[in-house]
Amino acid sequence: MIQFRNDTADAYAQIRGDAKHSEIHGNVYFFEMYGGTLVVAEVEGLPNTENAPNGNFYGFHIHEGAVCAGDDKDPFAQTKGHYNPGNTVHPKHAGDFPPLLANDGIAWSAFYTERFYPEEVIGRTVVIHGMADDFHTQPSGDSGNKIACGEIVSVSE
Questions:
Q1: Which end of the chain has fewer surrounding CB within 10 Å, N or C?
Q2: R_g over Cα of the chain
Q3: Sign of dihedral through CA atoms 30, 112, 141, 134?
Q4: d(CA 38, CA 29)
Q5: pLDDT tens for residues 67-123?
Q6: Kindly report the CA angle at 86 between 84 and 91, in degrees rounded to 5?
Q7: Whole-angstrom Cα distance, residue 29 to residue 111?
Q8: Cβ–Cβ contacts within 10 Å for residue 72, how many?
Q9: For the segment 49-69, what is each residue's pLDDT rounded down to a tens digit?
Q10: Dist CA 153 CA 78 (whole Å)
Q11: Cα 31 to chain center, whole Å?
């Protein structure tokens, strides 16, 4: 996989899976540019099963909460809902991302968004869900349980 240096990004999150998905790990990087943000994700260990109901696509969002913590029912309950400062409908939340596609458990994605700058999401969380985002079910795209999470921090911290 391509390796980005944390000191070139403005912010990043280290992704870790829940207890059932402990093999999931990776990084999401946020680079300020051109009136918005370039988001680059590299994640390994995603479930990758033949004929998976999600087609090996995974919902991928920024959530309001600051920590990747929760309880037995929802290990990432404290991530709260999608980051949505504009109070828009899904999939127009600032934190709504294109889904990740796993090939042999590996997903790599890069996209530009003008919905936020890196400094606006520091202190929030990035969440990977177990199912694909359907882009219309409110409020979160029916993307299933949260299976992995990372806390967004400034590179300068």
A1: C
A2: 14
A3: negative
A4: 8
A5: 999 998 999 999 999 999 999 888 888 899 999 999 999 999 999 999 999 999 999
A6: 55
A7: 11
A8: 7
A9: 766 777 889 999 999 999 999
A10: 17
A11: 15
Encode burial over 30-64: b for 16+ CB neighbours within 10 A, e otherwise. Answer: bbeeeeebbbbbbbbbbbeeeeeebebbbbbbbbb
Structural tokens at position 109? 């994605």
Contacts of 20 (CB under 8 A, 6+ apart): 147
What gap in Å lies between CA 147 and CA 20, rounded to an integer? 8
Rounded Cα distance between 15 and 18, Å, is 10
The two structure tokens encoding residue 94: 């600032």
Residue 4 reports pLDDT greater than 70: no
Residue closest to 111 by CA, chosen among 120, 121, 119, 100: 100
At position 56, the amino acid (one-letter code) is N
Phi, psi of 112 (to 5 degrees): -105, 140
Predicted TM-score (pTM) of the model is 0.92
d(CA 55, CA 73): 25
